[in-house]
Amino acid sequence: MAQYNLQINNRTYTVDAEPDTPLLWILRDNLGLVGTKYGCGIAQCGACTVHSNGNAVRSCVLPVSAAAKSKITTIEGLSEKGDHPVQQAWAEVDVPQCGYCQAGQIMSAAALLSKNPEPTTAQIETAMNGNICRCGTYHRIQEAIVLASSKIK
Amino acid sequence: MTIQKTNRRNFLKLAAAAGGGLWLGFNWSSTDATPIKIATNAEATSSALIDFNGYLSISPDGVITIFSPNPEVGQNIKTTFPMIVADELDADWAKVKVLQAPLDSTKFERQVTGGSGAIPHSWERLRKAGATARHMLVEAASKKLNASVSELTTDKSFVIHAGSGRKLSYGELASEAMNVPVPTEVKLKDRKDFKLIGKLIPNVDNHEMITGKPLYGLDFYREGMLFAMIQRPTAFGMKIKTADLTAIKAMPGIVDVVTFKNNVAIVGKSTWQVMKARKKLKVDYEPEGKLESTEDHNRIFKELLESKDAAVKRKDGDVDAAFSKAAKVITREYQCPFLPHNTMEPMNFFAHVREDGVELIGPTQTPDLARTETAKLLGIPPEKVTVNMTRLGGGFGRRLKADYATEAAELSSIIKAPVKVIWTREDDMMGGYYRPAVRYRFSAALDDKGNMIGYKLRGAGINAGNSTREDNFPAGAVDNLLIESIEHQSPITSCPWRAPITNFLAYAEQSFLDEVAGEAKQDPVQFRLNLLQKAKQSPVGAMKYDVDRMIGVTKLAAEKANWGKKNDVFQGFSVYFSHRSYVAQVAEVAMVQGKPVLKKIFAAADCGIVVNLSGSYQQVRGGIIDGLGHAMFGNLTFNAGAVQQNNFNNYRLIKFKEVPEIEVDFVDNGIDPTGLGEPALPPTGGAVANALFKATGKRIYEQPFIKQEGMGDVNISRNL
């Protein structure tokens, strides 16, 4: 066990954890930030996507010891009122079905748009291909990203 | 306007509790419903209304609360059901609050998500509930305004008296409405007067989902709860020989390690500590039954297809005579592998077995089964078990089994503590209850004019039950028809998988009919229309599908896709009836730099009245993507009883880049609605295989398509 100070959603959290604990489980079990989801545990599905210094990363394979060095944003901290342009677009397009993967989808999309506010279709495909949606909401995800892009402009 | 008789016994008013208001119970009983409480999600449960007892309540402050009884897996029922009630009630949708009802089999008749059955079951019941409440509010307004009922109209939670310009809100009327007798007859709206039904209504849980609120079973947490994972046998047909538990009992955060049945449960204070300890667990297994491999199944299929023990499911005319006089006989076989469901949220359940009862909380498609099986396991009366449903991160049929709930209850009873059992993705993919593997043999007899005078189908399944749907098309359209089914029982567990059986049968049948049409030198769409015409004019045997509706979707899909008139793409057709709805599809493949690319799928669906246009589009598109992904890539294989794929690095699910453009059209016929959770999935594989045949000249006889000869470089793209 070691103590870590984590910068998450503009707050500092102090947690006692084993150094290899993935950030995902710190968020979910220690901090009660359960918007970040477990899907595969091996960075293959994207359900656990968070931002580390603004980059989309898979928190299921990011050890807490490494996460402590970065500024982390989770779905709960993407916006105060759930009104980030990507979240607005997700609601307007009515993207979610079961909804389980959507926090990860939104975090991937938000990271893309923060670096590239007007992505091409090919850039959207590349950025989103690592986020699996078992319900098949892919068309609406694409539509929502295009809409969010227009909101950011 | 339709007059509907209501059964007064089904509509009971509750004595008004403190605060007044109208509560309308629907199959209501005296037990109190307890809305689910999840972790910090206090907002969802705190309300001005103290006890939600009925199906529908209107509080004096105007808040209308509607309970949605059915588990929500992403089929959108939690939005769709309340829409139906609210439309007949003329409620202001923006002020309707929807809550997930817990299991209550006295109050709600059917709390199951499966078989695309919720809408056909509840359509009329929900409308009557809304219309009954509306009637009572109007009666109350009539007294208060001293105006006759005929002078009153309703809109957006107000009763309006146009003559005087006065209006009263439902909130203001709620207490008085309690004194109005429950009507024996209610008027239901004409379809043209629907205000919500048929519109694009967003998901009621959107805000919670896109802001990451706790909603799912895996998100459930209660103070003092323990976390557990279970090591199950590593192969089907194995049992524990020895288990060395001492080493991991001392690991950090581990509270207990216990064995029960063939399970080793590791119980701890956090998920990661349990996961880590589990890696050190040493269990030796030994066979207790057959250890089957995929190769064994391939051999068994051949035996079953030749066996004399198949059950005859349907027999029309004289098949032997038809085949002996045929000008041409076509025989083909099709095979599909086992498939895991792979819900994005792996299996999990919370259980707390106490002296006075059992509490179960988690994602289930069938809460009643979780209760009855838990009661049976623990030897207690079912009333002692409560079940609350969280939102489900997918179901696809896997959560029609209660194994993962009863397992949690069993563990809680052993360790005498509240516990949540969590499955890893590997547990989930290796732990069983799969779509069964099946092989089919089809034969068609054609006369010298190309008419199909005989048709035979034998389904051979591994734990598949009846692997045919004997009354489906082309039954009814062929004079001489024989449908048989035979099963091999295996230790590998199976269960329903979205559109059970038809999820593969439709591909096989629609591929076969395409090939027969080719042999008969007929256009594939016209060939099917000719058969349907025959079924309409002179049906053979029992008819379980509506020929006109089947023709309707066939023609609509062909028209929308401009069937047969395009030069730049290769088109494949498929049409299927399942779960009371009809869907036809046209798939389009283009050759791009010499390689086939699936670019577009047109779908024409007939589910009667479309209740929620937004959700319905997604059910059709999502069903197509599900059917396509699994037909192209899905493959679960076995070696000596052990699953050979265990996570998304070696099991391929369809991804963002790999979906074609999908155009959806609905038949507008005003028929009472049927479900859409499943019916769009079955036709996809056939339409795609038929289009790929036209593009490449190669027929596909097995899934996954990508593994078949000449199909390795097939691309799917809506953007290429």
Structure write-up:
The complex is a heterodimer of chains A (153) and B (720). Chain A is α+β, with helices and mostly antiparallel strands and 153 residues long. Chain A has helices at 23-30, 64-67, 85-93, 102-115, 121-128, 138-152; strands at 2-8, 11-17, 49-52, 55-58, 71-73. Chain A has two domains: 2-77, Roll (Ubiquitin-like (UB roll)), CATH 3.10.20.30; 85-152, [2Fe-2S]-binding domain (DNA polymerase, domain 1), CATH 1.10.150.120. Chain A contains six helices and five strands. Chain A has a five-stranded mixed beta sheet with strand order 2-1-5-3-4, sandwiched between helices. Chain A is globular and about 45 Å long. Chain B contains 16 helices and 31 strands. In chain B, a hairpin with an 8-residue loop joins strand 2 (11-13) and strand 3. The chains are: A alpha+beta (153), B alpha+beta (720).
Weakly predicted, low-confidence segments of chain A: none
Strand order of the largest sheet of chain B: 13-14-11-21-18-19-20
- The number of helical segments of chain B is 16
Beta-strand residue percentage of chain B: 25-35%
CATH class of the largest domain in chain B: Alpha Beta
Mean pLDDT of chain A: 97
Strand-pairing-aware structural class of chain A: alpha+beta
Q: Kindly state the number of beta strands of chain B.
A: 31
CATH level-1 class of the largest domain in chain A? Alpha Beta
Q: What is the strand tally of chain A? A: 5
The N- and C-terminal alpha carbons of chain A lie at a distance of: 46 Å
CATH superfamily of the largest domain in chain B: Aldehyde oxidase/xanthine dehydrogenase, molybdopterin binding domain
Fraction of residues in H or I helices of chain A: 25-40%
The greatest inter-chain interface is formed by:
A-B, 60 and 65 residues
User: For the record, what is the CATH homologous superfamily label of the largest domain in chain A?
Assistant: Beta-grasp domain
Tell me the β content of chain A: 15-25%
The largest sheet of chain A is: 5 strands, mixed
Question: How many separate domains make up the residues of chain B?
Answer: 3
CATH architecture of the largest domain in chain A: Roll
| CATH fold-level label of the largest domain in chain B | Aldehyde Oxidoreductase, domain 4
